[in-house]
Amino acid sequence: MLEFLKRRLKSEKGAMDKILVTLLLVVVGVAAVVGLNEWMSTSKNSMIDAANNSITNITGS
After folding, report:
1. CB–CB of 9/22 below 8 Å?
2. Could you tell me the pTM of the whole model?
């Protein structure tokens, strides 16, 4: 894989830009997945708390 990248860097003009853009997109994608996962877990926990509070209010226990 590393040899492939070295060959592409030597043979193509502007290959470094493509690699940097690809790495940037990978970083943005990973950050988006982590952010979405954090948001969903927070939303899930708040929904569970709201449901438990409603059940407690209705049953009176």
Report:
1. no
2. 0.56
Length of the chain: 61
Check residue 13 and give its pLDDT. 63
Angle (CA) 8-12-13 rounded to 5° is 140
Please name the residues in contact with 12: beta carbons below 8 A apart, sequence gap of 6 or more.
18
Half-sphere exposure of 43 (CA within 13 A, CB side): 6
Distances 36 to 28, 30, 40, 41 between C-alpha atoms, Å: 12, 10, 6, 9
3-state SS class at 45: helix
Per-residue pLDDT tens digits for 11-60? 666 667 788 889 999 999 999 999 999 999 889 988 999 999 999 999 98
